[in-house]
Amino acid sequence: MKLHKCIFCDTLFQKEDEACPRCGQGIKAIYFAHSRQIYNSKVEKQLLAFLSKTFGRKDVCCPNNDMGELGSIEPYLEKVRHSSMVVVHQFRNHVGKGAYQEVKEALARNILVKVVIRGKGRTRSGLPKYSLKQVKDIKIIDNTDWKIRYGQVIIVKS
Length: 158
Description:
By secondary structure, this protein is an alpha/beta fold. The chain has one domain: Rossmann fold, CATH 3.40.50. The chain contains four helices and eight strands; from the N terminus they run βββαβααβαβββ. It has helices at 42-55, 63-67, 74-81, 97-108, and strands at 4-5, 12-13, 30-33, 60-61, 85-88, 112-122, 128-140, 151-155. The chain has a six-stranded mixed sheet, sandwiched between helices. It has a two-stranded antiparallel sheet with strand order 1-2. Helix 3 runs parallel beside helix 4. The N and C termini lie far apart (43 Å).
């Protein structure tokens, strides 16, 4: 019988699609790629509320809250490789280098990538209206700006 290792707490468990019995994280989670510019902000909280409502909290991996600062991009890319979907948020219509690499990795592995789009108005609970659009590709815009304008997603036309 093959054992699976939780990438959050290193616990070994049997079924790949179940949540880790120790920390509750699912091995096949939805990875939320977003700019550090919105970490711990009202916008990040609103986006997480939208994703939690859409997918269920235990299935959404927020690198800021669930992984923390790990020193290199590799652990985040490893989480992307074990995800069933990546949801990306563009800050000022762009992504930084980290989110760019996460999206590029997902697309290279044929993992579904969607981008969060803010619509007009608010929900009944007062949150901004968001929707998800499928990402076809990602391109580099400014390779000298690693924080904000590094790349931009290309959306599948509907």
